[in-house]
């Protein structure tokens, strides 16, 4: 009998195993957004703040800012509050959260968790609510077609495997099935532009593919266990089946990411960036 996905929390510790690599896009996004901020004491909302690494970067860039970090994970919020006791952190859902009086809406790697029918409308809702001159700055992983994520779908869809029954009630890889553990592909840059341009002074969009040198295929597993692999693992209710799933996934990763001369592997990680200024 197929299991139902369990509501489980994220692990801030797992996420921050690659803290430097995960924070680099924060600085890249911030470097382009900060030139548009018109005050030295902005009201900032850090949407999907995680363990506070992005909030910390924002406060370093704007020491006089009033910043609120929002996340849906209690563990992430606990880690963020411990790291930045003077900042405000609140529990919230991106799809319904309100950000009154915002000068800056900043989001590092959270909008990709929304299903496609929600993603652009939610982004536009936030942008419309900004005051004139307000800045929206987001970054999302754009790796639906990358081996790291395509292989999650392939392994989950393997027939007759120890874990197969845990995915029997959904269609992995079928974008029409909202129950599936895989995330929706990110929309094309022009879709973001067309949605925001009617309300914007300007819209800046770019895509960067980071090349992370990691120890081996097992390190790639550890990376995605902190993010995109979690919905798959949450579905597998048997520890033996979960172990078998991870072993098969790592085996296929080792084939897709050949060793470099020093024995490491190179994880290509594409990300889409958007910075828009409100009319």
Automatic annotation (TrEMBL):
<dbReference type="GO" id="GO:0030798">
    <property type="term" value="F:trans-aconitate 2-methyltransferase activity"/>
</dbReference>
<feature type="domain" description="Methyltransferase">
    <location>
        <begin position="44"/>
        <end position="134"/>
    </location>
</feature>
<keyword id="KW-0489">Methyltransferase</keyword>
<dbReference type="InterPro" id="IPR029063">
    <property type="entry name" value="SAM-dependent_MTases_sf"/>
</dbReference>
<keyword id="KW-0808">Transferase</keyword>
<dbReference type="GO" id="GO:0032259">
    <property type="term" value="P:methylation"/>
</dbReference>
<dbReference type="Pfam" id="PF13649">
    <property type="entry name" value="Methyltransf_25"/>
</dbReference>
<dbReference type="InterPro" id="IPR023149">
    <property type="entry name" value="Trans_acon_MeTrfase_C"/>
</dbReference>
<protein>
    <submittedName>
        <fullName>S-adenosyl-L-methionine-dependent methyltransferase</fullName>
    </submittedName>
</protein>
<dbReference type="InterPro" id="IPR041698">
    <property type="entry name" value="Methyltransf_25"/>
</dbReference>
């Amino acid at each position: 009998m197929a299991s139902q996905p369990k509501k489980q929390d994220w692990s801030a510790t797992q996420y921050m195993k690659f803290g430097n690599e995960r924070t680099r896009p924060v600085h890249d996004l911030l470097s382009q957004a900060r030139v548009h901020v018109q005050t030295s004491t902005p009201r900032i909302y850090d949407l999907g703040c995680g363990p506070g690494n992005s909030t910390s970067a924002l406060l370093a860039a704007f020491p006089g800012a009033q910043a609120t970090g929002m996340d849906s994970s209690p563990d992430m919020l606990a880690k963020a509050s411990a790291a930045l006791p003077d900042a405000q952190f609140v529990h919230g859902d991106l799809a319904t959260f309100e950000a009154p009086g915002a000068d800056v809406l900043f989001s590092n790697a959270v909008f990709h968790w929304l299903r496609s029918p929600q993603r652009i409308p939610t982004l536009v809702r936030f942008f419309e609510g900004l005051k004139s001159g307000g800045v929206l700055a987001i970054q999302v992983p754009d790796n639906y077609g990358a081996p790291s994520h395509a292989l999650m779908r392939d392994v989950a869809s393997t027939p007759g495997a120890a874990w197969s029954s845990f995915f029997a009630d959904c269609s992995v890889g079928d974008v029409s099935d909202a129950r599936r553990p895989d995330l929706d592909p990110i929309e094309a840059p022009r879709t973001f532009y067309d949605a925001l341009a009617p309300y914007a002074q300007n819209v800046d969009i770019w895509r960067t593919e980071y090349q992370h040198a990691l120890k081996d295929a097992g390190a790639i597993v550890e990376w995605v266990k902190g993010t995109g692999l979690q919905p798959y693992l949450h579905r597998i209710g048997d520890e033996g089946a979960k172990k078998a799933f991870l072993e098969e996934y790592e085996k296929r990763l080792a084939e897709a990411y050949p060793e470099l001369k020093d024995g490491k592997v190179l994880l290509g990680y594409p990300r889409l960036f958007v910075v828009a200024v409100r009319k």
